[in-house]
Every structure is written in C-alpha cells, then in structure tokens.
C-alpha cells in the first residue's frame, strides 16, 4: 500500500476511534470498547509503517522535523498502551489519537527537512532512542498533569462535572503522574548522559540551546521529585513543575528543529 494511503487510513481510524471513545465516555462507559481497541490497533500499525518508511530508506535516516514528530507520537501511543495494563490512562487517548492522526498525515505528505545521515553509531542510536522515549513519557505526564489541574480546581470549587466525573480519584491521579515522571526522568537522564558520551560536542553552537534547555528541564523535574519525596508536594505544585519542565523540553527539541530546519534551512 502506498505511504500516503497508509497515512490516510491511519488518520481516519484514529479520528473514528477517538470519536467513538469520547462518545462512550459521555455515556459513562469509560472503559475501552472492543471497537475502539480494534480501530486503534490497526491505526497504530499503519502509523508504525508510515513512521518507519518515512524515516528509514536504503541510503539514509531522515530525522527531520515532520518525520520525527510522527515517530514521537507513535512512541507516545505505545507508552500509553503499556501503562494502560496497570493504570487507567484511557482518557488521554481522546487527545492523543487525533494528534497522532495529524502527525501521521504530515509525516507522509510533508517534504524532507534537515540532514539525512548515512549511518548512526550504536551510541548515537542509544541517545536518540532514549531521548524519544523520554519525550514520549514526559508528554504523557504533561497531559496527566493538565487533567489533574482541571480535576483539582473543580473539586476545590465543589463543581465535579463534565470530564472530571469520569476521572479516577485525585490521589490515584497524582500517583499516576509521579509514576510517569519517575520513568520520564530516568529516561531523560539516560538521554543526557548518552549525549555527553557519544555526541562530538554537546555544547556546539547548533546544540547549546537544546542542551541548556534540556538540563534546566531535568533540574525542574528532579526538584519536583525531590519535593514530593521530602516535602510531600502535591496537586497544583506538581502541575506547575510538570508543565514548566515540559514546555522547556519541547522548546529544546521541537523549537530548535523548527528554527534550524524550517527557518534557517539547516540540519
């Protein structure tokens, strides 16, 4: 099947699965139905094929802005599904699936951007893989933090209606957030350490802003985890730290790629 057609099939299935799941939530049926799981699984398979063939070919690895976005959303979805085995994160799929549809379409139809290295060493592959996994898990943490913020605000105002009425208890929501943060920080630490070890110069001119912003984000996340352990930080404090760190992390990655590849036309 041609790549553009695969992307269209994936997008349509993602949108259909998200719409059906949202309908079920509004009908107070928050569990994933067989139809949602089936459409989501086929969409994820098509998404994986689009991401693979968009990034890898016989001569190069394409890690441009549009291509890497599809790969990151693929990993985010896989991470979310893995977490669903033990935690009720299915509400996040209502947002993740439409965004994944858009990322898949853009990856298939947008032009190549950035450099296309002919080969990647094992060390560099470790850095790239751990970075993508860290971004994926911390994206889930940011989405969880946004839901937690809405839930905490409405509960404080005794106005638990809408989506808040379908969410797990506040304490469980906090627990899930910090589980995601711990996993994300471990992966981010691996990404930073592997960057120092395997990149030629992690503070080179075209990397320094990305490195500095990532390190600041790591400090923010680590401070939050320390505060949780030592001082019992909860709810709104956790939300502010999580979203602040995520904003810096996304600016470090996507912001730098956007400027370098699409504005300055550099790799």
How would you briefly describe this protein structure?
With 267 residues, this protein is mostly helical.
Write up what this structure looks like.
- The chain is an all-alpha fold and 267 residues long.
- Helices cover 75% and strands 0% of the residues.
- The protein has eight helices and no strands.
- The chain is flat, with a radius of gyration of 19 Å.
- The mean pLDDT is 83.
Number of helices: 8
Shape: flat
Proportion of residues in β-strands: under 5%
Helix content: over 70%
As a whole number of angstroms, the C-alpha radius of gyration is 19 Å
Distance between the termini: 30 Å
Largest sheet: none
Structural class, by secondary structure, is: mainly alpha
What's the average pLDDT? Answer: 83
Keywords:
flat; mainly alpha; 267 residues
Write the layout of secondary structure elements.
Blueprint: H1 3-26, H2 34-55, H3 65-84, H4 93-109, H5 122-156, H6 170-198, H7 208-231, H8 235-263
